[in-house]
Design a protein that fits this description.
- By secondary structure, the chain is an alpha+beta fold.
- 40% of the residues lie in helices and 21% in strands.
- It has helices spanning 31-35, 42-51, 53-66, 72-81, 91-98, 117-127, 132-136, 164-169, and strands at residues 6-12, 15-21, 28-30, 103-106, 112-116, 143-147, 159-163.
- A hairpin with a 5-residue loop joins strand 4 and strand 5.
- Helix 3 runs antiparallel to helix 4 (72-81).
- The termini are far apart.
Length: 173
C-alpha cells in the first residue's frame, strides 16, 4: 500500500525549506534547502557535515534508538574512519551501508536530501547555531538575537537579529 505524502514549505533566512511527512507523524526537512543558505552547492555542505566525528556519533545513536534494522557493524566502520582527512561520506553511502532511515535521498524534480526533524535541527545548528533553540519554541511572541556582529543582516521568520549597539542606544522595536 502506498503511503500518503504531505508536503509543506517554511521560509527561513530568505530561503524556502521543504518539509514532508509520509505518516503524518515524522517530519522530514530538506537538508538541501537548508544548505543553500551557505553555498550554491548544497551537497558539498551536507557531505562536509557528514564527515565529522560528532555528526557520525549523533547519526549512529539516533539510528540505534529509532531504527531496529540499523546495521551497527557498518556504523562502527564509519565511526573509526571519521575525523581523518581522507574520510568522505555522502548521504547515499550512509543510507546504503547502514540501512539508515533518519536521512532520505529523493530523486527527481523536487528531490534532494531530507532528514528527520531531530537530525535536521542538528544540521541547522551546524549551519547557524544561534537559531536552533529559537526555532524549536512554538509561540506567538517575537524572538530576538542580540549580538556584537553589526554586519549580520539576515533575519529568520520569527527571529530578528539586533546589533548590541542598536539594542542599547535606540528604540529598535
Amino acid at each position: 500500500m502506498s503511503k500518503k505524502l504531505a508536503k509543506e514549505t517554511i521560509h527561513a533566512k530568505g530561503i524556502e525549506i521543504s518539509i514532508y511527512s509520509e505518516d503524518f507523524h515524522n517530519e522530514y526537512i530538506s537538508l538541501t534547502d537548508i544548505a543553500r543558505y551557505k553555498s550554491d552547492d548544497p551537497f558539498i555542505v551536507i557531505n562536509n557535515w557528514m564527515r565529522g566525528k560528532d555528526t557520525i556519533d549523533f547519526l549512529g545513536l539516533w539510528e540505534q534508538l529509532q531504527n531496529p534494522n540499523f546495521k551497527p557493524i557498518e556504523f562502527d566502520r564509519f565511526r573509526k574512519e571519521a575525523g581523518y582527512n581522507a574520510f568522505t561520506l555522502s548521504p547515499k553511502k550512509w543510507i546504503d551501508h547502514t540501512n539508515a532511515i533518519g536521512i532520505v535521498s529523493k530523486s527527481g524534480r523536487y528531490g534532494g536530501i531530507f532528514a528527520h526533524s531531530d537530525i535536521a535541527f542538528e544540521f541547522a545548528s551546524w549551519i547557524s547555531a544561534e537559531f536552533k533553540p529559537l526555532l524549536m519554541v512554538k509561540d506567538n511572541y517575537p524572538k530576538y538575537v542580540v549580538s556584537m556582529d553589526e554586519n549580520f543582516k539576515d533575519n529568520i521568520e520569527g527571529v530578528r537579529h539586533v546589533y548590541l549597539g542598536d539594542f542599547i542606544t535606540s528604540d529598535w522595536i
